[in-house]
Design a protein that fits this description.
This protein has 589 residues and is an alpha/beta fold. The chain contains 23 helices and 23 strands. Helix 3 links the parallel strand 3 and strand 4. Helix 7 runs parallel beside helix 8 and helix 10 packs parallel to helix 12.
Length: 589
């Protein structure tokens, strides 16, 4: 930690034994980079609440901090009240607060927390003027645009500031922006633009920053090049494009993907972005461009399975377009596609629930192991159309303050469905989607080649989601795939070249998984006859197919080799055996 004029903090409690990942929280570091370039010293820290107090004490006691800036979203309002009180009581320093929750932080919040100023909208120029005011003693609060504060006359809010148009003029985030030095430089989060032109009724971004501004491709690639070349020893690198309107301009996406593809020739990395269904449906070549440039994970705004709800959301898309885009992404080779279904939102009913469930199942089959569907309930984010006017959409908000939920309990009801039943419907949909994934895996509907890409790899950063979780719950299929991936096992098709000399190898330990019954046995959910159990017992990899046949034929349990072949095929179909990867003679080169 160095001496600073201001520190920026994004602190959250570890709710539900889970601390959020902070890679995508760019705001505090962008502000740090900006003030560092404009005459002040600033650094940021995003992390757990308990570690924040130690850093605050060290910074304020030993490193000359004169102002503290806090980041606030819907999930950490109470944390920020506690932090601000602590800073005011212990150090009596000015405290600023901004972030997506800022427009809703009014008089009560300011009085309870002791925060001096709320920054509304983009913070760079506003924070710079606030530092001039608090540190240099120049200017007046009332002249600074984009803030609210308490005055003798009550809550005072100044006019909004004009958004920054030339984003290329802003500095890159660098190592000087981190209050706690980073030791892992494998991941880069960046925004290639700001704003969103769409007006989804549940979304904060579309409700507040409609004007889209893009950085030039050259500027974006400059930041990526700095990342790739600064730490050439870093492995397993991953780039997260966090902006909402990434796929708004097809020509720009093509240009950016071309540059990314060129860098893939020298540096190994994967990347993530968000995509809008309608723009991808209108310009499907973007999907091919992104896949060719190494896109590993794409987030799509699916949200609902009926045109009525999608229209109410102002999604500017249709169920047909959603299916079209999922299929195109699948065929292009994008490994992971993620989308949500929102329950308890506009026009929610048992009928729309059934339609969403059916549509979700259809999408899972269509994605064939590429699409993950999350199930969430509506979050009443401040300032959105749905939060401001829930009655227009048949929704009652039961908890606008997020006091009952940390993303784990509904905050809405309808006339016929209370929050408790809504919670049950969430669980039911998740269970039904999990059943579809399991059945698709066991039936072979997910291509084996795709399944094998899910396993951990030292050289590839992966985001392990629902399909990976489902696979790990199927010990036979998991072990089957793992043996193939390690090249210790072969499929039956691959082992055909060995004929009867192939060596079948079971994938699960029998003492742990085989449960004997009077007429046979059961293993990993599969019922076996007595003869199938006896064959499985002989599949140790030590005996060839022919040796197993001779043993059982001599015992009078098999008449023909074809009988054994049918049993072995059935055992492999249930992912209970592979074939040992035997040593083969190689021709001299």
């Amino acid at each position: 930690m160095r001496d600073n004029d201001i520190i920026f903090l994004n602190l959250h409690r570890a709710y539900l034994d889970f601390v959020p990942g902070y890679g995508g929280f760019l705001g505090i570091y962008l502000l740090s980079a900006f003030v560092n370039e404009n005459g002040y010293a600033g650094q940021g820290y995003a992390g757990a609440l308990h570690s924040g107090q130690e850093l605050i004490d060290e910074a304020c006691q030993e490193h000359g901090v004169q102002v503290v800036g806090l980041y606030c979203d819907y999930a950490n309002v109470t944390e920020n009240i506690s932090i601000a009180r602590y800073i005011k009581r212990r150090y009596n320093l000015p405290v600023l607060i901004g972030g997506p929750q800022a427009p809703s932080l009014g008089r009560d919040f300011l009085q309870e927390s002791g925060v001096d100023v709320v920054v509304i909208g983009e913070g760079e120029m506003t924070v710079l003027e606030l530092l001039d005011y608090y540190i240099d003693g120049t200017g007046e609060l009332s002249d600074i645009k984009g803030i609210s504060y308490l005055s003798e006359d009550g809550l005072h809010t100044t006019p909004l500031r004009t958004p920054i148009m030339n984003l290329d003029a802003l500095p890159y985030i660098n190592e000087d922006c981190y209050l706690v030095p980073r030791h892992d430089w494998r991941e880069l989060s960046l925004m290639t633009g700001r704003g969103c032109p769409f007006d989804c009724i549940f979304c904060h971004e579309g409700s507040h920053t409609r004007q889209v501004r893009f950085r030039s491709v050259e500027n974006v690639i400059g930041e990526i090049d700095a990342f790739l070349t600064k730490h050439p020893e870093a492995r397993d690198r991953y780039i997260l494009f966090t902006d909402d309107a990434f796929t708004l301009n097809a020509g720009r996406v093509h240009e950016l993907c071309k540059a990314l593809g060129e860098r893939q020739q020298k540096y190994k990395f994967h990347w993530f972005c968000e995509g809008h269904i309608h723009t991808l449906a209108q310009h499907p070549e973007m999907i091919d461009d992104m896949a060719a440039a190494g896109l590993q994970r794409l987030q799509l705004g699916i949200e609902a399975g009926t045109e009525k709800v999608l229209t109410a959301y102002h999604k500017h898309t249709t169920p047909a377009e959603i299916k079209e885009v999922v299929a195109r992404c699948r065929d292009a080779g994008i490994q992971q596609i993620y989308g949500n279904i929102i329950l308890g939102s506009a026009h929610f009913s048992r009928e729309t629930y059934a339609a969403d469930l059916a549509f979700g199942k259809e999408l899972l089959h269509l994605g064939a192991g590429t699409l993950e569907l999350g199930v969430v309930t509506y979050w009443p984010l401040p300032g959105t159309e749905l939060t401001n006017h829930p009655e227009k959409y048949g929704v009652h908000i039961t908890d606008r303050e997020f006091l009952t939920s940390v993303d784990d309990f509904p905050q809405t009801e309808t006339e016929d469905i209370d929050c408790w039943e809504l919670q049950r419907l969430v669980q039911q949909m998740e269970e039904e989607f999990a059943t579809v994934r399991r059945d698709m895996l066991l039936s072979g509907e997910v291509p084996l080649k795709r399944l094998l890409t899910w396993y951990p790899s030292e050289s590839v950063f992966k985001s392990y989601g629902f399909w990976w979780q489902s696979l790990k719950k199927l010990p036979n299929l998991y072990s089957y795939g793992h043996l193939l991936l390690m090249q210790e096992g072969l499929t039956g098709h691959e082992a055909e070249r060995f004929g009867r000399d192939a060596h079948p190898l079971r994938v699960l330990p029998l003492q742990q998984y085989l449960h004997l019954e009077t007429s046979g046995g059961r293993i990993a959910g599969n019922k076996l006859t007595q003869l199938e159990v006896e064959v499985l017992v002989l599949c140790t990899g030590r005996s060839s197919c022919d040796a197993i046949f001779q043993h059982l034929h001599t015992a009078g349990k098999l008449s023909t080799y074809e009988e054994l072949r049918q049993i072995l095929d059935r055992l492999e179909k249930d992912f209970l055996i592979v074939y040992s990867h035997e040593m083969e003679e190689k021709e001299d080169e």
